[in-house]
Amino acid sequence: MILGLTLPGDRRERDGKDEAAERAGAASKTPTARAAKAGATPAPGSGSPSVSASAPIPAAAPGAAAVKANELGQVPVLMYHRIVEKPDRPLDRSAKELYDELTRLAKEGYCPITAAEFVSGRFNVPAGRHPVVLTFDDGTPDHFALDAQGRPRAGTAVAIIQRVAGENPGFRPVATFYMTRELFGMEDAQAATGLKWLQRHGFDIGNHTMNHPNLSGLSEKEVREEIGEIEDRVVRLTGRHTTTLAYPYGALPEEPAWAKKVDGRYAFQGNFVAGWRPSASPFDEEFDRWEISRIRSEGKIKENDCKKYCSTAWLEHLDKNPHERYTSDGDPNTVTFPKAAEYRLAKEYRGRARTY
To answer: Which end of the chain, N or C, is less surrounded by CB atoms within 10 Å?
Structure first.
């Protein structure tokens, strides 16, 4: 039930080491587990001035109440790997599958935000719409390349995202790409141009370690070097640090603090695992910025946990249970939710809270 990564058929055959690593990374996640709060401080500027816990929460704006805003609802963070015409690996999605899933998100009122925006606790989603975080692991060439005219190459994830945005007004063409040494298959000079293009166009670059190892089996020095080496390279190419890390295989190191901060080299505001459920809202007291859950992009497969826990199943569930889904009030400076959900609000956001 943990990740739903064992799938039948030739396309579902999976390297046993990778599967075991991904399962190990999510083994501590259970439906009832509360997020560990140690070291989980709000991102700069994301909280609010100190407000007494007994002070009444102001009423929501009429428009927020009208759209049934619930900014304590769940947020899908979708996890993609290779995007290819003929998938032959368990984590692959075809270009058509990506296009169809993004189009579904657009039609159902989802608005993409980046991982960096999500962990900041301030993102601008129109009233009545729902944030979704699109994440792509490993930085493979099918994610992004520029053609001779300097435009995203047809068939790449970026080109597909932009196509869906062009066809569906209100669907932001943004995503987060988690980098390893592959850097979209580009040499450094080309990679510098490409990464800067992504950043200029609102896309987000994240850290996925240099060599994609299972961090749970590495020493402190090895963990810090794997994270630091790719961070150094991204900074050298773009002039910017990454904001978030995605654990390879979803596996945490022996001491999670090793993957949070090294002075002068990296300092993340949130880390993502390979989970099986939507993330809690960043304003929910159960939100753990150091183990943010992602959902594998996949169709419903009756022989496998994806029948219930992959993206298609979760999107169906949230569509049928809209009260569980994050619905924006349209104001990035307030956090609106039904009065009955007040007990779930993290105290640092009380000053921004509005209820109805």
So the answer is: N
Taking only the tens of pLDDT, the chain with its 356 residues reads 333 333 323 333 333 344 444 443 444 343 333 333 333 344 544 566 666 777 899 999 999 999 999 999 999 999 999 999 999 998 999 999 999 999 999 999 999 999 999 999 999 999 999 999 999 999 999 999 999 999 999 999 999 999 999 999 999 999 999 999 999 999 999 999 999 999 999 999 999 999 999 999 999 999 999 999 999 999 999 999 999 999 999 999 999 999 999 999 999 999 999 989 999 999 999 999 999 999 999 988 776 778 889 999 999 999 999 999 999 999 999 999 999 999 999 999 999 999 99
Q: In terms of residue numbers, what domain contains 229?
A: 10-26+47-355
Residue 251 falls within a domain, yes or no?
A: yes
Extract the tokens encoding 114: 């980046």
**Tally of domains within the chain:** 1
**For residue 314, is it within any domain?**
yes
Q: Which of 230, 130, 151, 254 is nearest to 193 (CA)?
A: 151
Q: Check if the beta carbon of residue 25 is closer than 8 Å to that of residue 272.
A: no
CATH of the domain at 291: 3.20.20.370
